[in-house]
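USER: If only I could read backbone structure tokens as easily as an amino acid sequence. It would mean a lot if you studied the pair and described how this chain folds. Here is the record:
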Amino acid sequence: MSLVFVFISILVLILLITWLKFNPFLAFLISSILAGFLLGIPPEQIAGSIQKGIGGLLGDLVIVIVMGAMLGKLVAESGAAQKISDTLMSIFGIKNVTWAMMVTGLVVGIPLFYNVGFVLLVPLVFTISYRYKLPAVYVGIPLLAALSVTHGFLPPHPSPAALVAQFGANMGLTLVYGLIIVVPTIIIAGPIFAKFLKNIDARPLDTFLAKPKKEEDLPGTFNSFFSALFPVFLLIGTTTLMLNMSADHWLFPYLKFVGDPGMVMLISLLIATYTIGLRMKFKIPALMDIYVVASKDVAMILLIIAGAGALKQVLLDSGVSQTIADSLQGWDVDPLILAWTITAIIRVCVGSATVAGLTTAGIIAPMVSGGVVDPNLLVLSIGAGSLMFSHFNDAGFWLYKEYFNVSVKDTLKSWSLMETIVAVVGLGGVMLLDAFI
């Protein structure tokens, strides 16, 4: 019955947004309250669950998204995005733009959290789309496919890293297996799938669409790439140092502080304020005006994501994910397929890839200790399932929809279908690899 109640709650959410044209944030609050009552959460605890969900998700994302929007706006206004796009196009050519975006997403996605990579690189997508008159979704989906797959499949991202530890897998071997599966997966879900999305009408946020500048007014190539991608360098550096350093070392706490995604974005914004701001003859008041505009443009995005966090928390507090996992545990199927199926169903119902993966891990763990399945492949199978069909209850769905400014229908046709392709092709890669090792 729990699944029926989850379905009803999500259906109400969909109808409020698409039929009654409610603001998504209000629709999420109403659906969250309804889900709480239907799933048996005591009335006096429902408001607390909603507040916890909003606070928990915004606490993780608000600095990243706001600082990322400010950095993206500055990169656009300074001409750095134009310089980067011109350089990429000179290397790959306009015909291969989707491959350029895929490679960029893969390289950046390995060290960066998904949301950081999104807010950093999406402005580049919009610049290329605007400058070369290419459909924004066509350019962006290969990039997002690569970011999403690295987030779900590869350590050191939180969920895969936690699964590696829980199953006693080998992180290096999991990473190698993961890369073998990731490459064909993002090719299919990225450049190949993007060919079918050229007619989707997208009107990206104006904040990232700067007027073209003359070549002599642009920052240098190194300065442009350095300023835009400094968060990547900083995260790679701090992560590498921490992996090769004892937790007792006096420097470790400081590296952990600097390597926090929020601090990375703040430090990067301050550096970019100088390198492509003050050095390019921007005045401080003008830079602050740019940042204010950028913050206003993402305010509603933050509220919508907060609403998704409220619904996710209500579903978690109701225990529905564990109920689903328990009901599927007795299925007599291949352990890798079983793990993927349980994860995929929880992901679709709850909306969180991390929650889906870690919930499944607790159910599947006995199979690892019994030597029934390769733990490295099990991590990847669960990672693939955790990306299945992102929709209305997933913050990533709304992040994509609002940034690209596409309809709900087109979001489902592009983003949700891309995530489904990633999940299915990823499972196919795991099963194929299992047949050879």
User: Anything to note?
Assistant: The chain has a mean pLDDT of 89.
